[in-house]
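User: I'll paste a sequence; please echo it back and then give the predicted structure.

Assistant: Echoing your sequence first, then the prediction.
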Amino acid sequence: MKRREFISTSALAAASVAAGWTTYAPGVQAQTSNRPRRRVLGANDDLRVAVIGFNSRGRDHISGFKKLKGVRLVALCDVDSTVLAAGKAELAKDGIDVATYTDVRKLLESGEIDAISTATPNHWHSLIAIWAIQAGKDVYVEKPVSHNAWEGRQIVKAAHRYGAIVQTGTQSRSNPGLREAVAWVQAGNLGKIQLARGLCYKPRMSIGKVSAATAVPSHIDYDLWCGPSPLAPLMREKLHYDWHWQFVTGNGDLGNQGIHQMDIARWVLGEKTLSPEVFSVGGRFGYMDDGNTPNTQFVYHGYAKAPLIFEVRGLPKSREFQDPKTWGKNMDVLKGASVGVIVECEGGSMSIPTYDSAIAYDKSGKEIKRWKEGADHYANFVAAVRSRKPSDLNAEILEGHLSSALCHTGNISYQLGKRLKPDAIRERLQGMPAAAETFARLAEHCGANGVDLAGGAVVLGEMLKMNPAAEKFEGNAAANLKLTREYRKGFEVPARI
């Protein structure tokens, strides 16, 4: 290299670092290359995996990776010391000795870990994924991959820039039964697709209401638990799981259970961008508690080819079933599904009631074809890590980002909305027959549960238009502000990747 070229290249590299284009987790050794060094696995080498956050969904990560040939669990990380100790002890019963960490930053410093799998609360997903990518690890990140739309796109940028293999935890993508069914309906076997409808009719009871902050147990590092979110007093009865129902850390059932069905619905439609139009209708009905995410909601995504509508219902069929003993046994069902996807077509319909099955019907409702077959989503991730081909992933991070962001944009509409009476909402939905029909069923469902919407209890969300290429809303600064968040110092999702 000539001296002039060397000086120019060195200056550019220095400017890149100064601009923050290479941002690493505190304490993680920065690599000198744009692509961090990753251990090349030989045919006889084990993939060394660490699981981060396993008080709930993460337990499935542990059992899933533990059974795979050529995979070795080497570390666990959780901010709850009792959960961490129990996890280590459980693996010891199988003769597996793992290192344990409370702080994920310390775990990422280890050169004895090839990949991480994370199932922390939503507000941590993107930051952990990006830190791990920058530390030279491959990543399996639970759904939704992000707490907001902007940070999900940042994972995509990091994965593609640093050559990481990043899998999203939407396991339906790996199931052959569903893959065949989606290809079949996309091929036009039921005619043109007219509507994809996702359903999350799942029991969600009150999380209670506190009058003063709840003390966090001493065995939980609450500072680390909060991470990117504000370090604020705990204003609900329970720290674990109920974080889903507060926007500061969760995304409601739209971004909890619903992200699976949102992903399937978008997959069926074949859409590879965010929707150009979105709005939401709903509220938190049936009880007064410390949650602020809707338990009854629908989101309308106005794609050009066909709309995608998503419905959330946490209340049971009717008021008489609002008993803790029977609540979950009496949820609404639409065309054979309560948590699933319904695809309406010119020549019939398809019901997708589970993660691995689908049933096709003709116009008269007669069954004409059925699919059912599952597969191992963790194994797909491991195979892609070994091949180093992101194209081998069934749920590559871009797919996870787009489906997660559809949940986020729907929630943004809701958060910017106004409470209106049903007649006013019906008037606004004129010209959108699918949305009007969905609202009519929502109102009927609320009435069956003793919820009077006539007083103006239901929120009509802001009707938002988006530039899908830029992933920005058009003409709505307030909505664009909600595409990201203010991060706590030391836990910032990198602005430049």
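Residues 226 and 232 are 8 Å apart (CA to CA). Residues 24-172 form a domain with the Rossmann fold fold (CATH 3.40.50.720).
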